[in-house]
Amino acid sequence: MSTEAKKQIIDVGDGAAIPRKSDRGLFTAWRIAFFGAIGTIAYLVWSRPDPYLNILKFVPDGIAVTFQVTLGAILLAIVIGLITGLGRISKNRFFNGVASLYVEVIRGIPLLVQIFYIYYALGTIVKVPAILSAIIAMAVCYGAYMGEVVRAGIESIAKGQREAALSLGMNGRQTMIHVILPQAVKVILPPVGNEFIALLKDSSLVSIIAVADLLRRGREYASESFTYFETYTVIALIYLIITLFFSKIIGVMEERVSVNK
Amino acid sequence: MSTNSRRKMVEAKEIIKVYGSFRALDRVSLDVYDGEKVVIIGPSGSGKSTLLRSINRLEEIDRGTIVVDGMDLYDPKTDITKVREEVGMVFQSFNLFPHKTVLENLTLAQIVVRKRSKQEAEEKAMALLERVGLAAKAKSYPGKLSGGQQQRVAIARSLAMDPKLMLFDEPTSALDPEMIGEVLDVMKDLAKDGMTMAVVTHEMGFAREVADRVIFMDAGRIVEEGTPEHFFTAPTHERAKLFLSQIL
Hints:
The complex is a heterodimer. Helices cover 79% and strands 0% of the residues of chain A. Chain A is mostly helical. Chain A is flat, with a radius of gyration of 21 Å. In chain B, helix 3 packs across helix 4 (118-131) and helix 4 (118-131) packs across helix 5 (147-159).
């Protein structure tokens, strides 16, 4: 009845186009964009060291902060997503209800509003550094999306797998850990990579709550030197390079996983 | 009947299973005795798979009682995993775990459920793979095996748990014709060994050769029941006659 060969692909298209070898057009576009962006920065710095070299020297600690926020948030979001996803498929009404409510509420509020809200709401209770509040806000938001990815990944595993495990006397937990999740991970990995890139880009939003990320550092430099156009050109190119770099890495990881199968 | 004096492995009474307004099982009662081979046949949609799957509670019934090896499936005190440990099941679509090697497919439940050591589980697994003629494939992944080989591995996987009863749900229906024989041979071998078996199949030759009792189902009911000789030579029910004339 069910054919194992049919591989389900979950498409959550808010990250970046991930270049796959089979998609020649995109593969070429990736190269042009990636090396073009690096070339453009190199040319600008070479031709007009002031302001471009100065901008480039000013923003690296911003890049580090952007990475910190992104990495912290994605790890936390994966944990939240795993719990939420399991909750969404749970037969336990309370657990399922809480997970579903979380997903519905979070997905209905813009990320920017959530970032403000958590920053100020947390601020009234405890004093937390802006960067921690930013990581929490991003993770809470992306955890909801990640929960849906996890849920879809688990549901994509053929029903027969679960039945086979149960018929061997495994309980629900053992079935999930030994049979369902290891297979779901392969299905989930591409969309999680996509979420990572989406989160990387969205992390620029945290600049509004005084987190000195890449965008914030750019704005600081621009407002001091009045080189808005030049600064934002560099900022945009750096984001582009980082995003393309990671989309490439995710593409390679995806291929590795599918080869192992 | 001499079987009446033997112990009942399965005792299903008046079971009803409803999908919406459709009665998949309509007051079905079935006993399977220790060591008995029961073959269930019937047209598609007659409820034979549903009946089989209700025996290890992969399918929840709406009415009636099912007792397996002395354990009432719907008694709140019954741990259903304990029942399933004793009841092996072989599926139409094999359902091997694709992320594990053939050997790991056979050892997983032994280690996790039966709490055997890895070494003990592997010895058991290798002996069973030898028995189904696939010891050489122990390190392969299921995806590299033919359908017939996968199904033989699936049977070995169930046997690794030392079940008291084996359920077969159309084990050869998804196979190419030339692979059906190798799977049936393993099942016949198992029958010879005295395993208690309940088999849903369209393989009439197998039913004739192996079955102690043939059960014919139609529209959620058992309409004919008896020895293979009786069933294949002198069926009484019209529906059974029609089915046989179409299939033979």
